[in-house]
């Protein structure tokens, strides 16, 4: 068998890159003095090497000279820049929460900050974070001398259309920066942008092209339409919170950020076309460079995009021009240039991922692929396994520290995703270019990216649903260092046969002990279940068995898509004859769409309340999209199934007045009595004091063996109401660590004093009620 010669990489610039990176990192995380100390140490070491080595005889003399330059940069301009940022006047004012007025230059696109829906607040982005450079600052009309970098936390509605290159005036309250970079302060902006200038023409052109892509994607299904712009230019504004979380859990979130892989795909497609046309190396390099510049402009030209452009182009151009040995020095040189240009790169997780991912693909992946090939794995499959495995090993420590979790399904998910990433990106870029001048043509091309996006969504969703797919991990730099130690230990163990056997035994033990504990041991769902309170976070979703296999009634759908769907999957529900929305607050209707996924639904039922207006319109749109009727449940109405009956007990009265705090919407909740084999269940939505008093005053028979505690166990429950129910089992649907103080201790104590057993979804997970000889019994699935 003929083997390819081993490429000997040139590591002479690596010490300079590492010293520059480490010095900037320490200077930003702790103090600028450490950057100065690292620079001085690098200078002393390099001078010693330069004196000892001779340029004509030692190939490392050039590396020592580069180390000297890096040390001088750290001890000089970089150290001074870190010092200015650390002692910027705005930094001190931020500690006191001072009000200021700033004139800034926007440097990056607004990043939406998503919030979960609750009460009358719709889920989605309510604010944006915008990076900007300070041009002028004033405090009480007095100038403040600052040239620092700030992060604007501004309202989404008025600031989301701002694009890089614009100068704007903003007023707000300063706060200490969250990240340890060159940002000197965060600014909580309350008003709209003032005196905004026009952005440069190329930024306006890029924004119009991104808008053309978003419009073209409207022909795709909703989730695919939100994903394609993220795959192409990192635009995740249309991405749902559910899909974002699933991609994170599956270890695929890197696909939705502009990275070196995007650049490599675009330039690689251009190079492949040019090679088919038999273009020469210089012409190929020139045209691929033009494609690279165009893509950088399209993606926004921000610092993160420039970083990705530099990193992604290194390996591609070096390999395309037949200079494999130049990859490592080019990577080291790019690291030096980027850190010297912007020291904040040293603490950027994206920068770290770009560098080590490129290094891993260059240094590890070819060796691992060759090793697999020697063991009989076909070449194509060898590379397909080696590339994601190498990328996972080198990036796992950074991802673990960044996200506070480690995806154990990342390698498998990336192997499955890899074949469609390139075509989806190429079709998306082509659709963007075409749609700018010819929208119909852009829509036609973007349809070609739809199946690939659908496959990625399927892979992410199924991978995130694997039991134990995500391992909780300490976050921050120390968590990343711990993951690095574990990764090194695993790699070293795989190099020795005895340690490989030991590692295999450990993994087998984990599979035998942990997986059955998560999948088999709970025996979920329990046989004969009648009611299940789903763990959907800070919201409500209950499932009532109808007595027919795979068929159940759903009452409320939780605050977001995903949790209710997974709960129904675990219960094996394929048909839902009725979805009842107790009222229209976001934490009860946010997951409505996901109830329809893979299931037939008969109808959606609501009470008399129509507020908030956005939620009523959303419920109508979902019903129309899935072609199911939207029904109103009248007082006294009865519904029957073989093993379930529902009776509408309330609301007795719906107020039409102003509702500033959502109390009236809560009091418009549909109150149901469900009769099940496990006993009667009182389903109360979020009824508060007035609605509870109305039910008592009307003489309604409220007695039930099982109570769905109103409003997540809040303090707004009448003791007389709880006593009238006299439940033996109280189900509290509530999210762990919520900021509302739910459930209230007094409410829980009152229920316990009345003889009720408490079951809570925040501590017990999905909770099932089953019939027992002595009454209802509870089975907890666990978290």
Automatic annotation (TrEMBL):
Stored SMART domains: Lactamase_B
Membrane-crossing segments per the record: 20-51, 60-80, 252-274, 281-299, 305-322, 343-365, 385-403, 415-438, 476-494, 501-524
Gene3D superfamilies per the UniProt record, alphabetical: Ribonuclease Z/Hydroxyacylglutathione hydrolase-like (3.60.15.10)
SUPFAM superfamilies: Metallo-hydrolase/oxidoreductase (SSF56281)
UniProt-recorded name of the protein: ComEC/Rec2 family competence protein
Matches recorded under Pfam families: Competence, DUF4131, Lactamase_B
Membrane topology label: Multi-pass membrane protein
Keyword vocabulary terms for this entry: Cell membrane, Membrane, Transmembrane, Transmembrane helix
Keyword flag Oxidoreductase: no
Domain Metallo-beta-lactamase: 538-736
Compartment(s) of residence: Cell membrane
Domain of life: Bacteria
Claim: Cell membrane is one of the keywords in the record: yes
NCBIfam families assigned: ComEC_N-term
């Amino acid at each position: 068998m003929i083997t390819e010669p081993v490429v000997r990489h040139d590591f002479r610039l690596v010490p300079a890159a590492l010293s520059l990176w480490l010095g900037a990192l320490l200077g930003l995380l702790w103090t600028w003095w450490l950057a100065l100390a690292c620079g001085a140490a690098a200078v002393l070491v390099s001078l010693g090497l330069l004196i000892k080595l001779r340029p004509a005889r030692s190939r490392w003399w050039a590396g020592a000279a580069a180390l000297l330059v890096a040390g001088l940069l750290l001890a000089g301009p970089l150290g001074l820049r870190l010092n200015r940022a650390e002692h910027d006047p705005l930094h001190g004012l931020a500690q006191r929460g001072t009000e200021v007025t700033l004139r800034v230059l926007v440097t990056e696109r607004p990043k939406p900050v998503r919030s979960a829906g609750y009460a009358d607040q719709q889920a989605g982005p309510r604010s944006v974070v915008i990076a900007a450079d300070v041009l002028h600052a004033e405090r009480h009309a007095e100038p403040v001398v600052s040239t620092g970098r700030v992060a604007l936390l501004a309202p989404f509605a008025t600031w989301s259309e701002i694009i890089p290159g614009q100068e704007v005036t903003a007023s707000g309250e300063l706060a200490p920066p969250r990240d340890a970079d060159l940002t000197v302060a965060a600014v909580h902006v309350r008003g709209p942008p003032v005196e905004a200038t026009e952005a440069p023409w190329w930024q306006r052109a890029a924004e119009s092209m991104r808008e053309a892509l978003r419009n073209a994607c409207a022909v795709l299904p909703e989730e695919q339409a939100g994903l394609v712009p993220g795959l192409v230019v990192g635009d995740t504004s249309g991405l749902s919170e559910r899909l974002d979380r699933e991609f994170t859990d599956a270890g695929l979130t890197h696909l939705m950020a502009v990275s070196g892989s995007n650049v490599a795909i675009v330039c690689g497609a251009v190079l492949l076309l040019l090679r088919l046309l038999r273009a020469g190396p210089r012409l190929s390099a020139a045209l691929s460079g033009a494609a690279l510049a165009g893509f950088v402009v399209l993606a926004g030209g921000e610092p993160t995009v420039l970083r990705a452009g530099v990193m992604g182009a290194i390996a591609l151009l070096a390999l395309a021009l037949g200079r494999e040995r130049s990859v490592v020095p080019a990577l080291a040189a790019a690291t030096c240039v980027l850190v010297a240009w912007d020291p904040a790169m040293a603490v950027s997780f994206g920068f770290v991922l770009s560098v080590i991912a490129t290094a891993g693909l260059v240094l590890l992946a070819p060796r691992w692929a060759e090793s697999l090939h020697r063991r009989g794995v076909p070449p194509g499959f060898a590379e397909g396994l080696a590339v994601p495995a190498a990328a996972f090993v080198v990036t796992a420590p950074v991802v673990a520290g960044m996200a506070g979790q480690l995806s154990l399904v990342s390698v498998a998910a990336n192997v499955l995703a890899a074949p469609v990433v390139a075509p989806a990106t190429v079709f998306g870029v082509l659709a963007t270019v075409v749609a700018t001048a010819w929208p119909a043509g852009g829509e036609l091309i973007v349809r070609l990216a739809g199946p690939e996006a659908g496959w990625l969504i399927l892979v992410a969703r199924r991978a995130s649903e694997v039991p134990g797919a995500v391992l909780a991990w300490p976050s921050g730099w120390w968590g990343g260092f711990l993951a690095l130690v574990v990764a090194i230990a695993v790699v070293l163990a795989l190099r020795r046969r005895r340690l490989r056997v030991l590692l295999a035994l450990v993994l087998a033990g984990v599979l035998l002990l942990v997986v059955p504990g998560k999948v088999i041991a709970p025996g979920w769902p329990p046989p004969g279940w009648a009611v299940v309170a789903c763990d959907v976070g800070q919201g409500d979703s209950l499932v009532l068995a109808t007595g027919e296999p795979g068929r159940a009634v759903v009452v409320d759908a939780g605050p977001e898509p995903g949790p209710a769907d997974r709960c129904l999957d675990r219960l094996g529900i394929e048909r839902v004859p009725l979805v009842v929305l107790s009222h229209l607050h976001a934490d009860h209707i946010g997951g409505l769409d996901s109830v329809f996924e893979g299931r037939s639904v008969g109808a959606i039922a609501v009470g008399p309340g129509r507020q908030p207006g956005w939620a009523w319109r959303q419920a109508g749109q979902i019903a129309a999209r899935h072609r199911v009727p939207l029904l109103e449940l009248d007082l006294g109405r009865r519904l029957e199934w073989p093993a379930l009956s529902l009776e509408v007990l309330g609301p007795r009265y719906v107020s039409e007045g102003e509702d500033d705090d959502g109390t009236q919407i809560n009091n418009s909740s549909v109150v149901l009595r469900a009769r099940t084999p496990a006993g009667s269940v009182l389903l109360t939505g979020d009824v508060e004091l007035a609605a509870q008093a109305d039910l008592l005053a009307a003489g309604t028979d409220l007695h039930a063996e099982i109570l769905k505690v109103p409003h997540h166990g809040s303090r707004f429950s009448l003791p007389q109401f709880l006593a009238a129910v006299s439940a033996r089992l109280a189900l509290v649907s509530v999210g762990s660590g919520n900021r509302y103080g739910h459930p209230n201790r007094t409410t829980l104590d009152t229920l316990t004093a009345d003889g009720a057993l408490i079951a809570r979804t925040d501590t017990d997970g999905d909770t099932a009620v089953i019939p027992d000889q002595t009454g209802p019994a509870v089975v907890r699935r666990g978290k």
